[in-house]
Amino acid sequence: MSLPSGLRRSPMAWATAAMLVSLVALALVGPLLWGAAADRPDPSAVLQGPSAEHPIGTDSLGRDLLARVLTATRPSLLLALAATLLGATAGVLIGACTAVLGRRGRRLTAGLINLLLAFPALLVAMFLAVVFGAGAAGAVLALAAAGVPGFARLAQTLAAGVAGTDHLAAARVLGLRRHQLLWRHVLPNIAEPLLLSTTTAAGTALVALSGLSFLGLGVQPPGYDWGQLLSQGLDRIYAEPLPALAPGLAVLYAALAFQLLGEVLAGSVARRGPAPRTPAPTPAPSGPAEDGLVLQVEDLSVELPTPDGTIRPVRGVCLSLRPGEVVGLVGESGSGKSLTALAIADLLPYGARVSRRTLRLLGADLAALTPKERNRHLATGLSVIFQNPASALNPSLRIGTQLTEAVRAHRGASRAQAAAEAADALRRVALPPALLRSRPHQLSGGQRQRVMIASGLMVRPGLIIADEPTTALDVTVQRQITRLLTDLRRDTSAAILFISHDVALVGEFCERVLVMYAGTIVESLPADRLADSARHPYTRALVASVPDLTADRGRPLPTVEGAPPDPLAPEPGCPFEPRCSLRQDRCAEQAPPLEDLDAGHRVACWHPVPVAVDPKTVTAS
């Protein structure tokens, strides 16, 4: 194995490698070459100073001190590494689990970490060494326990960055258990900085362990390490300094090697690349179920706490989908589209609160299920295609592993059976099965999006939520993805909730369109009537803002004038009233309900726009 080019040019890297090789060599061959001389007493050479026969002198039994220092390399390093690994393992598991625990468990774990950090690590190590009893085992356990809080805090901080990623949310949708989330999706993505911290902590542990042995709390005679040799040589330091300096220099040399290793690894990494979840309150019993619906949502609302107060980005949303139906959800950024989808999938951000009168998926009332039953039903009943597949896919796992997780977790499929189903899923999205061994960074954007769709197909869902799946793709790939979704809808009869900013794409791809503004549904109509028969001023303004080849290039593109309402200070009346050129007094006083205009067409507006009105005259100038 060769070093990276950056390391090969670094003098520090070469010096560190030489120091580590020398320590490893001494640990391996030291007891074999000098073990006998280190343990052989010589009454005629007691407490001698440095000489040609004994370069740094002898101890009170006439044993050669140089041989003892060299032989002590193995126990000193092994005990320090053992203490570091034990403390790092326990601390990392405690800190990383905060990314997968529930609100109460996460708060308790965070409180425990804060409590442990209040005590100085060295004092804790000395106290526990006394409690466990003097000796090598007690010293190792004491140092490991003292190192747990530091590793736990570091892992907690790193895991918090992973907890909000799309790929962890996707894994939750698949219904993976907490230990699977921890081992497959959290730890692999925080391993690198933890490894660097562990490397430098080994040097600190070596110094601390030598200090405990120096105080008589570590290695006990007849065993010895550098700390005990330093303690024995200190009594004669004024007459013969070398017996004390030699083990001290050995501790310094080894600790410096570990610290330099951490610096080198951190430099290599730098050169390579540039809150508790609040459960929803217990909802009231759902309204009556409507037969034949894949999804039935009534009066869905979401609240988010902010430093300036609580906001309601989703208010009173009602929607339903039938098998094989494609429903588009459109609106400006911040209108609540993605939050609505996340609320349905039970993937709201930490701290969010959701309420609803009815939420049924595939006929099951989610409010009536236990948390375990609800998670399993959501994991097998729906799939979510996220906007950014690069973040939704775990960068540390192969594509095959990510595709097979759900079927192995929920259907008990064997590894071979799951791999065969994953290969078939890739074929259905026009990708070769050979990509199962690839990692996400090796795929193009279109391929990653297809992998996301294949992942959703593995559980044979009744509902597919596509949250802006074509936003970052070029026009050709957009058409391929929408054509693929159309084919999958035809083959599997799955309903699709298609969220997008692209009004033109939604009009072509979907059968029915829901227009969302300021957290509410303001219009619902058939997609073939979107371009010329929309009645809400906001919908007409969205349609008018879509550019076409006949537009006058000398004039600016039409836009929806004004800005959405402030969610922290909602005004009474219609939320679109300040931006609407057709507003009247009633619009500022009372919010309009979503009412039927004709078959399949509903609108929330006191004064629906006549069909013949030019949409460019609807918004305020």
- Helix/strand-derived class? alpha/beta
What's the CATH architecture name of the domain at 73-272?
Orthogonal Bundle
Supply the CATH superfamily name of the domain at 73-272: MetI-like
CATH topology of the domain at 73-272: MetI-like fold
Region (Disordered): 552-575
InterPro entries: AAA+_ATPase, ABC_Ni/Peptide_Import, ABC_transporter-like_ATP-bd, ABC_transporter-like_CS, MetI-like, MetI-like_sf, Oligopep_ABC_C, P-loop_NTPase
Family: Belongs to the binding-protein-dependent transport system permease family.
Main location: membrane
Question: Would you give an account of this structure?
Answer:
It contains 21 helices and 13 strands. The protein has 621 residues and is an alpha/beta fold. Among the domains are: 73-272, MetI-like fold; 511-546 and 560-621, no CATH class. An 8-stranded mixed sheet has the order 7-8-9-3-10-11-13-12, sandwiched between helices. Helix 16 (415-428) packs across helix 17. The longest helix has 37 residues, at 178-214. It is elongated, with a radius of gyration of 33 Å. The chain starts with a helix and ends in an 18-residue tail after the last strand.
